[in-house]
Specification:
Elements (H helix, E strand, L loop, with lengths): L11 H4 L8 H4 L3 E5 L3 H13 L4 E5 L2 H9 L5 E2 L3 H7 L2 E4 L3 H12 L8 E4 L5 H9 L7 E3 L1 E3 L20 E5 L6 H14 L2 E5 L1 H25 L5 H5 L3 H7 L10 H6 L1 H23 L5 H12 L3
Parallel strand pairs: 1-2, 1-4, 2-3, 4-5, 5-6, 8-9
Antiparallel strand pairs: 7-8
């Protein structure tokens, strides 16, 4: 029987309430597998290890990444068999790029083994993988929920991990995934251990909102950074915090965003067209020496919501 969950997306106060305290023993978590030990996966591993040393963490990634993770004691064991991972781990985290996560999920669904593992991903788009999960014929008793931590950096790789990367940030979960009560306890333990808080929301709504609060800022930062690249290096270094803040996201590699832009291209295109119209409007107002105070007031309102 699936446990009932309250959708918190439209309830800011409720969304920021910490989940009830659930110990790893109550949640039934003694081992966590991380498939993709990069920035996100590495940060999860380091945070979990710092909070519970006895927790076993299994790593699945390229050999060089695994060697580093073992050397720095972020993981306890490297594994190449997804069947073994599914059989040994209580929580399996897919933290590769969206396309790779979908491939991993398909392979995990085909593993015939005795398991009750909870599988979740960390991709920034939920609709595609949530839809895929519902079409899979599972050969085991694992459960999957599409997820997305609203945290990250403009750089990638295990070497850029941060223990507190998720602290005070939301962790989105697809509210349509039918999870039993035991898995809900695992999610509660997981998010609380990371220092984040869960928000259950429709995957389509999540992806549409991410267009404006994640993908458009990334594109604008990239374009502004590309726009000033004709200046000499020393000139760019003279910039104040304004330009530095604006182009910080421009340091992100395209590989981090390629799958996202392709999957969300219809909605992203519509939102970009609206943005273009706003840019054209303000350009006309400036050309006519008009008053653009209204734009500043709207921006200040958004800014005030962050603090």
């Amino acid at each position: 029987m699936a446990a009932k969950r309250k959708t918190l997306f439209d309830n800011t106060q409720g969304a920021r309430r910490r989940p009830g305290k659930v110990t790893s023993r109550q949640a039934g978590v003694s081992a966590v597998a991380i498939c993709g030990v990069g920035l996100i996966g590495g940060s999860i591993a380091e945070r979990l290890k710092s909070r519970r040393r006895a927790l076993r963490i299994i790593g699945y990634d390229k050999k060089a990444t695994i060697r580093r993770a073992l050397k720095e004691r972020l993981i306890d064991k490297a594994e190449t068999s997804l069947k073994t991972i599914l059989a040994e781990a209580d929580i399996v985290i897919l933290s590769a790029n969206p396309a790779s996560n979908e491939v991993l999920l398909k392979r995990l669904s085909c593993c015939e083994c005795d398991t009750s593992a909870l599988i979740l991903d960390t991709g920034s788009m939920q609709t595609g993988i949530a839809r895929l999960a519902k079409t899979l014929v599972w050969k085991n008793n694992a459960h999957f929920i599409s997820a997305h931590p609203m945290a990250g950096r403009e750089v990638q790789g295990l070497q850029n991990r941060q223990t507190d990367l998720f602290v005070d940030h939301p962790f989105f979960f697809d509210d349509s995934a039918p999870l039993p009560l035991g898995d809900m306890r695992r999610l509660s333990w997981f998010t609380r251990t990371l220092g984040s808080y869960p928000i259950f929301v429709n995957s389509k709504t999540h992806d549409q909102v991410m267009t404006d609060i994640s993908q458009k800022p990334q594109l604008l930062s990239t374009l502004i950074g590309a726009f000033v690249q004709d200046y000499e290096r020393e000139t760019i270094r003279l910039a104040g915090t304004g330009l530095q803040s604006m182009i910080r996201l421009g340091g992100s590699p395209y590989s981090n965003w390629h799958d996202v832009f392709i999957e969300n291209s219809p909605y992203l295109s519509r939102r970009l067209r609206l943005l273009i119209r706003e840019l054209q409007r303000i350009e006309r107002e400036i050309s006519d020496a008009g008053d653009i105070a209204a734009h500043f007031k709207r921006a200040q309102r958004s800014y005030s919501c962050l603090w």
